[in-house]
Each structure stands twice: as structure tokens, then as C-alpha cells.
Amino acid sequence: MNHLLEPNGQARATLILDYGDVSTTLRQKLEARSWCVHIAPNLKEFKKLFKQQRFEVVIIYFDQEQIPDASELETLSSLNIITKWIAIVPSEEWLETHPSILFSHLFYDYHRQPLRYDYLLATIGHAFGMAQLQSQKLEHYKVQNNRDDLIGHSKETEKLRNRISVVARGKESVLITGDCGTGKSFFGRLLHKNSQFATGPFKTISCGAASESLLHSELFGHEQGSLYPNCEAKIGKITQCHQGSLLLTDIEDLPLSVQSSLTQYLEQQIFYPIGSDKASSSSCRIIATSSSDLRQLVQKNLFSEALYNALSTTTIEAPRLSERHQDIKPLAQYFLDHFCPKNEAKAFTQCAFGAMQQYHWPGNVRELMNRIRRAIILANDDIINESHLELPNDNHLHTLTLKDAKDRVEKDIVVRTIAQAGYNHSQAAKDLGISRTSLYRLISKHEIML
């Protein structure tokens, strides 16, 4: 099975959420096959790493004490629809009491402990291959960030449109808050386009994607030789954005030491590049975004109160997609039109629109966009129906008995395994760890059509 895991010219990275430090063996086996393995001991670190790097495969170890919320993982998965998620559960008995974990439509597959590493490595290899294939297809369906206005006319959208119009007239810094996937970065760009700085430069820094020293350098620059011997001098983005705007995403991830320097700039319009004792100045509008409650972080001493006060004089709140139900249809049509080349035009069925209206969209606009991108790939003809969107039926799930839930999981795994085995029943039974007779019994039990 090693051929499934051989390098294809690029580094293969996997991220493992492991609360109990039990993934050592898996890490060794993956690294022996040239994988780059990242381990996160908690959900906070997992989120940070997931946002910083692209991972084709992520693996979640579930245990009795630490059980991350499936909806929170779903929201995180909307950041990258290519990633394949694999769950490792303690036992079949554990799964019976946590059926919603696998009904999130998040996991590509799951494995029970004690692990059969040959099966698990094969699954990881298959998952990586599927991610690569979908990634290649999605290259043809890139969204164009060329719209200059908000899409939709719901009450919340009109309120947001008016707020952006008013805030755009000023010069002060702006804090844009809201859940992940609500479009905060887009609103920041829209704010710049409608401001007096529109003809000036616009740049972005992700505060959670670099080290403390690099972030300080990205913001304020550094002198020659100040970071390491013979390094060249660098002009920071605050200087580059003179008479323009600088968007700082995930401001809650900015290190505290850099927060104090940014506060000084916001209050006095001066800053010090690394290695310099001479103050520099620039007229740059700071636009910051955050998915966290910064007031709570201030109370926990995890975020500077001075910086919060400097940023929050002017705020914009991005509404959830669930608060903009009237906008779902025009947004969906917009993404469909922009992802599909003109010679590959597709259309939604009314059932697809109905399903999108009923779904609660935990990943907000980003999830809507990504599910439509995936639906375009899954739809073989010019019609996109409800099944292509792969939306979880959450309301129905809550009415299931444990037996019904287990049967649904069992059927889903059997169908998927048979498909992955190329409809070879002997191989599918081997992959499931059961006999062919048991496999045929399951096919009959669940009335699986092959």
C-alpha cells in the first residue's frame, strides 16, 4: 500500500488534533513515508495551525474527556473544502453515544481503536489523492473578487451597506467583527474602495500567520542587519500604505508586544522599525477584523485594552448568513455564475434553493461559496440539485433514536467503503475488517443499491 503515499513532487502535510499524546506511532509511520506531520494538543492550537497552512488531510483523535463540538469543526472546515477529515474514535460503543460526530458530513472516514495502521494509512493515502484531484478541478473555478457592492437586499444587508457608506467617509481606524466566514475581509476591501483613500494602496496582513518578529517587521519594517547578519532593510506595510489602507485580519492573534507598538502608531502616528531608534510616521488607515469577543480577551489579559479602545471607536458588525436569509438565493446565484465558465453554465433546481434556505449555515457566506464550488464538481450535467450541496439534515438528526443513528452511520460507511474499493466486494469486506458474508448481510439490511 506504500504506493498510495509516495510523494508526487510536493510536500504532503497532515494536521493531527491529539489531546492525549497517543499519536506517536502514527506520526512515526507517516514521517517514514515523507509526510510532514503537525500535532496540535488542543483545539485552539489546531485552529491556529489550520489557518496558517494548507493541509490535504487532518486527523482528529476523539476520547472520553475531550470532545470538540462538531459544529465548530464544520465551521473551521469551511476555510478549506479540499481538506479531508479523518476521525479516530475510542470504540464502537463510544460511537453509539456520539452519533452526531459522523453525521456532520465533515469526516471522510473514521477508524476505531485499537488502530489497524495498514487500513488507516491506506485511508490517508486515498484521502490525499481525492484532495489533490479536487484541488486540480477547483483551479478552474476561482471566484473573482471584482464586485463593488454587497449582494442582496435583506434588512441586515441594507443596514450593513449604510454603515459601510458612513464609516468610509472618515479617517479613523475601524474594527470589523463577526463570526468566521461572514465576509469581514471583503467588507474591509469595500470600505477602502468607498473611502477617500481609494486611490491609495491597499494591503493585507494575517496576524495569525507569522511569528512575532516577522509580524513586527511586516507592519513597521526593519533596518539592515537587524533580524540576522547581512539581512536587507525592509519597508513595512504601514509605510507602503501611506495615504491608503492596511487590513489586519484576525487581530486577536497579534502578539501582545506588537499590540503595544500598533497602539502607539494609532495614538501618535509614529512607529519604530526593528533596529532603529528613530521614529517614523505614515498616514495609513488601519482596518482590523476579529472573529473573537475582544472585550472578553481584554478581561482575561489576552488582548491589550489600549489597542481595543483605539480600534473600537468605529466598528462594523458583520451579520451571520442565517440573519440574511433573503440574500441566500442571490448570493448562491452570484457564486455559481462566477465559478462556472460561460461554456459550462449550470443552474440550481428549486429543491436546491429550498435546501439552502432551510440550512443554518454555521460557516456563513464562506461555507455557501465553498459548497457551491464543490457542487459544481459533483454535478456531472448542467443541473445542481440538493444532493450535490451535501447539506446535513440537522433537524431530522435530532429526532433519531440511537439505533437509527447507528444504522445511518453503518450504511454510510459501507457505501463509501465499497465505492473506494472500486465495487470489489472482497476488498471492501477486507477494508471493513469483516467477512464477505457479513458484508452481503449489511448490503441486504440497508437495501444498498449497487
TrEMBL record:
Q: In this protein, which residues make up the domain named Sigma-54 factor interaction?
A: 150-377
Q: Name one GO biological process term.
A: regulation of DNA-templated transcription
Keyword Calcium attached: no
InterPro entries in UniProt: AAA_lid_NorR (IPR058031), CheY-like_superfamily (IPR011006), Homeodomain-like_sf (IPR009057), HTH_Fis (IPR002197), P-loop_NTPase (IPR027417), Sigma_54_int (IPR002078), Sigma_54_int_dom_CS (IPR025944), VpsR (IPR045343)
* PROSITE patterns linked to this entry: SIGMA54_INTERACT_3 (PS00688), SIGMA54_INTERACT_4 (PS50045)
Question: GO molecular function: any one?
Answer: ATP binding
Q: Has UniProt tagged this entry with the keyword Transcription regulation?
A: yes
Cite the entry's keywords alphabetically.
Answer: ATP-binding, Nucleotide-binding, Transcription, Transcription regulation
Show the PANTHER family listed in the entry.
TRANSCRIPTIONAL REGULATOR-RELATED, TRANSCRIPTIONAL REGULATORY PROTEIN
Name-wise, this protein is: Sigma-54-dependent Fis family transcriptional regulator
- Organism expressing this protein natively: Kangiella spongicola
